[in-house]
Write a structure and sequence with these properties.
The protein has 17 helices and 12 strands. The protein has a 9-stranded mixed sheet, sandwiched between helices.
């Protein structure tokens, strides 16, 4: 049995959970060893107890590992453990990281720089447009947008990231054989086909329910540097994500809503309680600027780069080089870089979001952070 297979089996043992699995691994050394250990010794591990120890020692009575591996292969899914390179780094640090992380699609190095976007399923038109706008801006600027594939805010955040040709990750509240809601299956397929991934800590056939969705919410916040609440009612599940984010030491952002709208009560209250009020993607990039470092390919020492390391495209690097000496207009930039006009215009927008370029009066541009 491989290490990954042992983690999958442990993940499927009833009533075990990631916290107890971590305690068992500290005591016994590996997932494989846990499955080989007699019940009496398992029961001596803090938090386990005799009944659960018997269940673990007889795990094959409760887990059909062969059938689960067949489902994984048939669906084109793969499973990561905390030892794998592309397992989200920040997720490793939370109190209860997933023992087995199921992935449909691919996680990349870039996905370690994530921002969660959450909110109401019954989103207002204003909130839906905000979710799409922020999803677009943040993905365009190089962050991976994490959300939950639900109707409303989640759907629009994913769509915005896809429109920007950026990365997005859908964190599921059930197994990857049970895409929910079913009407978002086409969106799920688009995400998995080269623009991100769907991930879940649940075995393939787990049906989402009232218990699994809150568990999912801690992964959205846990995998990201911050969580943006776009719109949330007084009892919205999005507030669970904000609570998890605060407990995990992540930054909580919120978009203000109309004070007379029930769907905005929760998000407005978050701002009262200290969440960062934001009005565009740049506000979030400013707050998360410690993630970013100056690009070695941009010449100016005063350029405070705010792009995730390694995220600059060739056109972005070319424009920064052209702006290193002095400010100039779009026509001059086209001449200096020999890039098409459309490429220069869209790339300047990207660099503005990353706070690498500022726009001056008269549609002229200069390298460096705008003055506050």
């Amino acid at each position: 049995m491989t290490h990954t297979e042992a983690c999958i089996a442990l993940n499927m043992v009833p009533k075990l959970g990631p916290v107890r699995i971590r305690a068992l691994r500290r005591a016994l050394g590996s997932a494989e060893e846990i499955l080989r250990t007699p019940a009496d010794r398992l029961a001596g591990v803090d938090g386990v107890g005799r009944e659960l120890a018997r269940t673990i020692s007889r795990w094959e009575d409760h887990v059909d590992l062969g059938a689960e591996l067949a489902r994984i292969q048939e669906a084109g899914v793969h499973v990561l453990t905390a030892e794998d390179e592309h397992y989200p780094r920040l997720l490793r640090e939370i109190h209860d990281p997933p023992t087995a992380l199921y992935v449909w699609g691919e996680l990349t190095e870039r996905d370690h720089h994530g921002i969660g976007i959450v909110g109401s399923r019954q989103a207002s038109m204003y909130a839906a447009e905000c979710a799409k706008k922020f999803g677009y801006q943040l993905a365009y600027a190089g962050l991976t947008v994490y959300s939950g594939l639900a109707r409303g805010i989640d759907t629009n955040a994913h769509l915005g990231a896809l429109a920007a040709k950026g990365r997005t990750v859908a964190v599921m509240g059930g197994g990857l054989s049970e895409i929910y809601p079913p009407d978002n299956f086409d969106l799920a397929q688009r995400i998995a086909d080269g623009r991100g991934a769907l991930i879940s800590e649940f075995s393939m056939s787990v049906v989402p329910d009232r218990q699994t969705f809150p568990m999912r919410n801690r992964l959205i916040s846990g995998a990201c540097h911050g969580v943006l609440v776009v719109e949330a009612g007084e009892r919205s599940g999005a507030l669970h994500s904000a609570t998890f984010a605060a407990d995990q030491g992540r930054t909580v952002f919120a978009i203000p809503g109309q004070i007379d709208k029930p769907n905005a009560i929760g998000s407005n209250r978050l701002i009262q309680q200290g969440a960062k009020l934001v009005m565009d993607g740049g506000d979030i990039l400013d707050e998360l600027s410690d993630l970013f470092r100056p690009s070695a390919r941009s010449a100016g020492p005063d350029v405070a780069a705010t792009a995730p390391a390694g995220s600059l495209t060739e056109p972005e690097s070319a424009l920064l080089g052209a702006l290193a000496a002095d400010e100039c207009g779009i026509d001059e930039l086209i001449g200096r870089t020999r890039l098409p006009a459309a490429t220069v215009t869209s790339t300047l927008f990207s660099l503005e979001l990353k706070r690498l370029v500022r726009q001056l009066p008269g549609k002229r541009y200069a390298a460096g952070r705008r003055s506050e």
